[in-house]
Amino acid sequence: MAVPKAKTSKARRNSRRSSVWKLEAPAMAKCPNCGEMNLAYRVCKKCGFYDGEKVLDKVEG
Question: DSSP string spanning 47-59?
Fold first, then answer.
């Protein structure tokens, strides 16, 4: 069974836990077809295009 050799100080413990709050925003990209902002590497929800090809048929209305 693993047992710590020495007590971990509060500073070392807290500095290890400090990176939890550093969240990154999701990568957004502009759709080349309609100009709508959407998540990168995903099908555009507005026009249904991905990588220059129509993937989804969107119904207007």
Answer: T-EETTEE-S-PP
> CB–CB of 38/31 below 8 Å?
yes
**Cβ neighbours of residue 30 closer than 8 Å, sequence gap 6 or more:** 36, 37
Q: Give the number of residues written for the chain.
A: 61
Residue 37 CA, distance from chain mean position: 14
Q: How far apart are CA 44 and CA 50, in angstroms?
A: 7
SS3 content of the chain, % helix, strand, coil (to 5): 20, 15, 65
Q: How many CB atoms lie within 10 A of CB 49?
A: 18
pLDDT tens across 11-48, in order? Answer: 999 988 887 777 788 889 999 989 999 999 999 988 88
